[in-house]
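Predicting holo structure, manganese (II) ion bound.
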Amino acid sequence: MRDPELIALIAKTLREVEGLGQVVILTHVGGDPDSIASAYVLRELLLKKLKVKLVDVVVPEEPTAHIKPILTYLSLNVLEDVPKDAEAYFVVDAGSPEQLGRHIDILSILDRFVIVLDHHSGTVNKYPKHVKVFSNELYQSVSEIMYDLVEYIGYSIGLREAEALFIGIYYDTARLMIADEESTRKLCKLISIGINPSSILSSLEHGLDISERIARLKAAMRMKVYRFEEWVFAFTEVSAFQSSVARALISLGAHIAIAVGGREEGILSASIRAVNDLCEKTGLNVGVDLAEKVAGKFNGYGGGHACAAHFTCKASIEDVLNTVLEILSTKLKKNLEVVKP
Ligand SMILES: [Mn+2]
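Done. Tokens:
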């Protein structure tokens, strides 16, 4: 257990929602495997162990294409709108209020429980004071927090819940690429319950659809490449699929990649990915050093982890690029060189 104190505090808070009539769990905008998995297990825990009568899961602004197969696999129905008369609201895996999209208004409910379970950098300071925030960035996923929590409470999970936690931990560790000993140990325990990783993953991983392929390839054509001596940075523009594109640029060979694009008039959305090697050797935390800084400078919001982050801001693509180059030059302490096509 990474943080027994945090887990004990969450368990204590859960006792206050025991037996309630209606509880709502929200993920961050679009959801991702970790947020869906933790929402699923939290829902089961609330219904089965804590005897809550009704628990709805809300994915703000509609589930992304990637998580639809997971929802189907778990037979989890999600709502787009938040039921307004629930007695408690949980938020899972949202490192800042803005990640709730238009449902940010649930944070202004003062007379009911609003409880956040998270594992991003600096989450505690980003929510209003009346919200109970339980977060520790030592956890590699919220699914892992749920793992410790069910163990602490003494709720024995079934096969589907074990599969959900497996999915959450697996994807939030970038398919085990950044998994540490603790996450790996938990995955092994989940497997020993009787789940079959290859059959779960093969039913979730089906190929890219055509629009995502085209987005990735067009983004690669428009890519700008820079070197900070031994580190290679790729930057590109794409109107959708930013995280998929950033990941693709990493597999093309970049150490750090940013895909930026317009979501609506004047607002840019960006995904950042970096290889573990760079984060470890240089101490760069793309969530804190890039996403938060760029968003802070240009009237937006952002955050994430050492090697993966996201931000939204109001700026031109050139302004974002120049700011990122400045930050990287300072942080990496290397000379910048433009790589010509
Ligand atoms: Mn997560």
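The domain at 210-339 is CATH 3.10.310.40 (Diaminopimelate Epimerase; Chain A, domain 1).
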